[in-house]
Specification:
Layout (H helix, E strand, L loop, with lengths): L2 H21 L2 H22 L5 H20 L4 H25 L4 H25 L3 H23 L5 H27 L3 H20 L6
């Protein structure tokens, strides 16, 4: 499948998915969401000019996130936990890919100074609602923060592709923001607004990271 076709289909499928989310149509979500998420995996495969270590690890992370997407489509708590684990491993894969491709630089510190206070505030806000999930959510927040910090390191490495650096940072940040809306939906206040804002951010982030499989490494 060509990238042009992927980028044509993805926004259309996202709109359809949001309609099913608004209607709380589980069958519709299960039909559309896996297909849409498969497209970001296909994006990475199509974009990669050669399968470098970076590209392979990014694809692995995308596949784990695809699994997480399917799990989170179900309302059961056990499926939410399974999705959390899949996304956690997906973030770890991104961290490994970003750290492997970039040299240490000041971008790591700048991203850390920005991400860690925000993550701390997010956890404080969520903590009263978490119950038995406190440790799991804390671990997840730590990992997504490290993912953003690692992306900052990629952005700060001037020897890498400029477009690749930008897409990694923007993709990681978009993914990070989308996770906040997932947490708000699950633990604080269920609302279609969480989906309306969070899902476009999530897919924007994933497609940007996927495209870097052909730009970095």
């Amino acid at each position: 499948m060509s990238l042009h076709l992927v980028f044509l289909l993805a926004p259309l499928l996202l709109i359809v998915l949001l309609v099913f989310e608004k209607r709380d149509n589980l069958r519709g979500k299960l039909m559309v969401k896996p297909v849409l998420s498969c497209l970001f995996v296909l994006t990475a495969l199509a974009a990669a000019t050669h399968f470098s270590a970076y590209a392979i690890i990014v694809v692995a992370g995308l596949v784990l996130c695809l699994v997480g997407d399917v799990c989170l489509a179900f309302p059961q708590r056990t499926m939410f936990r399974a999705g959390l684990v899949a996304f956690l491993l997906g973030h770890v894969a991104y961290i490994v890919a970003f750290v492997a491709v970039a040299r240490p630089n000041v971008g790591l510190g700048v991203a850390g100074a920005a991400a860690l206070p925000v993550s701390g505030l997010v956890y404080v806000r969520l903590q009263p609602f978490l119950g038995s999930m406190q440790k799991a959510v804390m671990a997840y927040i730590i990992v997504i923060s490290l993912m953003v910090i690692a992306a900052g390191g990629v952005f700060g490495d001037g020897q890498l592709s400029a477009s690749g650096r930008f897409l990694v940072l923007n993709g990681a940040f978009s993914f990070y923001l989308s996770d906040i809306f997932v947490a708000r939906q699950r633990f604080v206040q269920a609302s279609f607004w969480n989906r309306l804002i969070g899902l476009p951010l999530y897919y924007l982030g994933q497609f940007q990271i996927a495209y870097t499989a052909g730009l970095l490494g």
